[in-house]
Design a protein that fits this description.
799 residues; alpha+beta; 18% strand; elongated; 37% helix; binds adenosine-5'-triphosphate
């Protein structure tokens, strides 16, 4: 792909991703084209930063010239076009680096990013800029042609570097790299020349450029940024003044000659005197002026950075602009806190911490790999690191964007010694504390904004309460949940609404269920009917948090799906008596159920949680709720473990003594002769069927799976036949029209078609499953007949 062009010019084709990215940048960011300056200044700043850090090990590198950035606009003679030159005295690039850095995209995930944006109609919005540093390619927003001349510093490794140029036009699919015909004129660093497009000539105006730097880059460089300005001043034209003086003197002399002449002397004198008295003093001749154009480099970022200023004098707009440019996030922040402090060791610092209004995708997608880069530790305005090593922020807080500038840490500390620095060790605590304070402040003062915080950071706050034991209490207070009565309820709000006598915090959770569905739950029937508030856990992290906390302000959590539920207003004596009475009354039914439900539950008890439903399956405190059981089977864990078997079985069948169905079942059982031999087998079978449907119904309503679906439906089928008066032995007419004979004249498949052969797989439970080839999936549906062990077809209504 490379060919030698004349004059040492090596032509390269852009890597395809670069060509695509350049196209996106040029087409979609047109209305944001001013960002080119911010991106190039930021690259220049990075290059200076790299040089400074490298020079800690090889001090000679920074010799010769200040570390700075300069911007110069040069209108073309005749005023038709022009160019902008941005230079830095940073680390520079070798010809290989020019090719690799500007001609390829090394960043991982870039291809996916590009595809995403290409497919996204809204790609042209500013998110793009925030999501991805477009860097160098933003040059093509304003330039038809870009030339980058670069010269690395003389170093031990590269003692005689040669200045090279990278050149490319906006519409070309290739670029060239060649030795700079001017020689090593840069001394060190990089010079980017932008040949401006006709619609970008406004950037030749130095006032415009200065404004842009102030807006986007004023704070983003800790190195001085200079703008080349031509200043036109009106100054006294000394030459003209001298000439005028000479002329005046000549006039005076001529006048004097005239005065000395003899004629009309008196008259003339009188006339002169009266003139002097009436007229204002004769105006002095104007000083002759001329326009002089002087060149100067004005220092654009001389004023102190935002974080060094007094918060009282910084406007919200300034905080937002600073955030946008410094952290390269196009969206405004959700909130911020600007603070200063002292580490206690005499290290003073100033800092601003921001809450972004959007989390990076990687935060959730690759939570373990996500490494924050928006913590900027500076020392005396110079960037030191984003990496706090082992003192890094806890995961839940790792997304904050914070700039923290310390007064007096040794500047040349290596990363290793930094890790041991006390200030660095304290940083984590300082930042987390301020972040919490900010969240608490918003909670207190700005409910609307706090809603947004919940939307965005709700799960993260809960994650923090789980993982950050030190701040668990504060984070728990900030957590919000849905309840049967309202949204966004905190534990404190819940407790304020607690009923007299209530000594439990009621909650209910089931994987994948909405709050609405949960509030219909059989377990909460009575609680909700009586007006109690139940926290509804709708997010996976809720369950983990409740499992971790177990209580709030010493009040225990009660999983409503578990045994042990107490309203708190029960009279223990009365309750005991009632329980005894009911147990006595329902004894025959309870005994019956204990036998019939022995495979599903450990015991049968009278319920105090049901209103309408006849019965429910409730997990005991050490047993699995339906939710946990689902999670266990999803993760396939613990199968075959004794404890697991035990927990699976630790369930109670609770019956509702006031349900007419339960009463009805009790009566039927009481009517059965006590001597089993005297019982009519058909009647007994009928009651067993009804019982089993009742138990299965309770399982389903309580969120569990029916143990044996075949048996369940066979029974439903029999009950249906009975209630419809259809004899139990009546058979469906199973005669079907056989298929016509084989037609051998047609090919079975067209050659380009895949065989229409479904594949049968056996799932874990041994049941067959049909896997359709992909091309058949949305065209074919399959119904299967089930055959029992004796080879009989199990009847299904739909077959
Ligand atoms: N002025 C410069 N001096 C030295 N190297 C530079 C300069 N500008 C760009 N580079 C090099 O080119 C690379 C690509 O630059 P580009 O702006 O496209 O992306 P980036 O700076 O790596 O990413 P981002 O803009 O997201 O920070 C940089 O990583 C850097 O190595």
């Amino acid at each position: 792909q490379e060919g030698k062009a004349p004059a040492d010019k090596v032509k390269h084709d852009y890597q395809s991703d670069v060509a695509r990215l350049r196209k996106i940048v040029i087409n979609s960011l047109y209305s944001h084209k001013e960002i080119f300056l911010r991106e190039l200044v930021s690259n220049a700043n990075d290059a200076l930063e790299k040089l400074r850090i490298t020079s800690l090990k090889e001090p000679g590198l920074t010799e010769g010239g200040e570390l700075n950035i300069t911007i110069k606009a040069i209108p073309e003679e005749g005023g038709k076009g022009g160019k902008i030159i941005i230079r830095d005295t940073g680390i520079g690039m070798s010809p290989e680096e020019l090719t690799a850095n500007l001609g390829t995209l090394a960043k991982s995930g870039t291809s996916e990013f590009i595809s995403k944006v290409e497919g996204d109609e809204a790609g042209g919005n500013g998110n793009l800029i925030g999501a991805f540093g477009l860097g160098f390619y933003s040059s093509f927003l304003v330039a038809d042609r870009v030339e980058v001349a670069s010269l690395p510093p003389k170093s031990k490794k590269n003692p005689s570097p040669v200045q090279h140029v990278f050149a490319s036009s906006a519409d070309e699919s290739s670029f060239e790299v060649y030795p700079d015909p001017r020689g090593n004129v840069l001394g060190r660093g990089t010079e980017i020349t932008l040949y401006l497009k006709d619609d970008a000539l406004e950037y030749l105006d130095t006032v415009e450029l200065a404004k842009l730097v102030a807006k986007h880059s004023g704070f983003s460089s800790s190195f001085p940024v200079y703008l080349y300005e031509l200043e036109t001043k009106e100054v006294e034209d000394e030459e003209a003044a001298a000439a005028l003086k000479a002329e005046q003197a000549a006039k005076e002399a001529a006048k004097k000659d005239k005065k000395d002449a003899p004629e009309d002397e008196d008259e003339a004198v009188v006339e002169d005197e009266s003139d002097d008295a009436d007229k204002p003093e004769a105006a002095a001749p104007p000083t002759p002026m001329k326009n002089v154009t002087t060149e100067r480099w004005s220092h654009l970022n001389a004023s102190p950075p935002l974080w060094q200023r007094d918060p009282k004098n910084v406007s919200d707009a300034e905080y937002t602009l600073f955030y946008n440019s410094y952290f390269k996030d196009f969206k405004p922040p959700l909130g911020w806190t600007h603070f200063s402090g002292d580490s206690g060791d005499g290290v003073g610092f100033k800092a601003i911490l921001y809450l972004p209004s959007q989390l990076p995708d990687e935060f959730w997608q690759k939570p373990m790999e996500y490494s924050p880069h928006d913590l900027k530790l500076l020392v005396k305005r110079t960037f030191i690191t984003s990496d706090l090593g082992e003192n890094k922020l806890p995961k839940w807080a790792s997304w904050v964007k914070v700039v923290i500038d310390a007064d007096d840490l040794p500047l040349n500390v290596s990363r290793e010694t930094l890790q041991n620095n006390r200030f660095l060790k304290q940083l984590r605590g300082i930042i987390v504390k301020r972040l919490l304070q900010l969240l608490q402040k918003i909670e207190k003062e700005d409910p609307k904004k706090f809603d947004k915080i919940q939307e965005l950071y709700g799960s993260i706050i809960k994650l923090g309460a789980v993982e950050d034991t030190k701040n668990r209490e504060k984070l728990t207070k900030l957590a919000r949940f849905k309840t049967n009565q309202r949204n966004d309820t905190s534990f404190d709000m819940y407790l304020e609404n607690k009923k007299q006598g209530q000594e439990q915090i009621f909650y209910l959770g089931e994987m994948g269920k909405t709050a609405e569905e949960l509030s219909q739950s059989i377990f909460a029937e009575k609680l909700i009917a009586r007006g109690y508030e139940v926290l509804l856990l709708t997010e996976p992290i809720d369950e983990v948090l409740f499992g971790t906390l177990r209580e709030y302000k010493k009040i225990p959590f009660q999983d409503v799906a578990k045994a042990g539920l107490k309203f708190g207003d029960e009279d223990p004596e009365e309750e005991k008596r009632e329980q005894e009475e009911l147990t006595e009354k329902f004894k025959p039914l309870i005994d019956w159920l204990k036998t019939e439900a022995k495979d599903q539950v450990r015991d049968v008890v009278i319920s105090n949680r049901l209103v309408k439903s006849p019965c429910a399956i409730v997990a005991e405190s050490f047993g699995y709720t339906a939710n946990v059981q689902k999670m266990m089977s999803a993760s396939n864990s613990k199968r075959g473990d004794m404890l697991h078997e035990f927990a699976m079985k630790a369930k109670l069948l609770e019956i509702n003594p006031r349900s007419p169905l339960i009463e009805g079942l009790l009566r039927r059982i009481e009517d059965l002769p006590t001597d089993e031999d005297e019982r009519d087998p058909e009647t007994e079978e009928e009651i067993k069927e009804a019982t089993s449907i009742l138990i299965d119904g309770a399982l389903v309503r309580s969120g569990f799976d029916v143990t044996d679906k075949n048996q369940f439906f066979t029974r439903v089928d029999r009950v249906l036949r009975r209630s419809l008066g259809v004899p139990q032995n009546a058979k469906a007419d199973e005669t079907v029209k056989p298929a016509p004979p084989v037609d051998s004249t047609l090919p079975r498949f067209k050659p380009e078609h895949k065989p229409l052969q479904p594949v049968v797989e056996h799932a874990d439970d041994g049941k067959p499953r049909v896997i359709l080839p992909d091309h058949m999936k949305d065209k074919v549906s399959i119904e299967m007949e089930e055959i029992d062990d004796d080879g009989n077809v199990i009847p299904h209504d739909e077959l």
